[in-house]
Amino acid sequence: MDRYHRVEKPRPESAINENEIRITTQGLIKNYITYASSLVQEKRIGEIVLKAMGQAISKTVAIAEILKKRIPGLHQDTKISSVSITDVWEPIEEGLVPLEMTRHVSMISISLSTRELSKNSPG
């Protein structure tokens, strides 16, 4: 792949709900916990949703467990899935064709609520 460079595609901007927190690998756990705690305790939002993809999943699980320990009475519902991401690679040298590679990335969504969540949900 040293003869190719990846073409950055513009990401579609999707609206993020006030109760949704997207966890990344660069963010600090302390900041996510502080923000989530303020949503639940100060703004009185009944349910928050932690979302992450790929390598940030383990950080998201840790954040959810810390929040459940710090805020008594939180209920959890976890959903896992995968997303297909297509990367386009353009050749640097003449005579090579552009490549499209599809990769599957794991995704997690953890709902933490002060109200009891659906008992029919598997997570």
From TrEMBL:
The keyword Phosphoprotein does not apply. GO terms for cellular component: nucleus. It is found in: Nucleus. SUPFAM superfamilies: AlbA-like. Residues 19-83 form the DNA/RNA-binding protein Alba-like domain. It comes from the Eukaryota. Keywords: Nucleus. InterPro entries: Alba-like_dom_sf, Alba-like_NAB, DNA/RNA-bd_Alba-like. Signal peptide: none annotated. GO terms for molecular function: RNA binding. Belongs to the histone-like Alba family. This is LOW QUALITY PROTEIN: ribonuclease P protein subunit p25-like protein. It comes from Dioscorea cayennensis subsp. rotundata (White Guinea yam). The lineage of its organism: Eukaryota, Viridiplantae, Streptophyta, Embryophyta, Tracheophyta. The gene is LOC120257188.
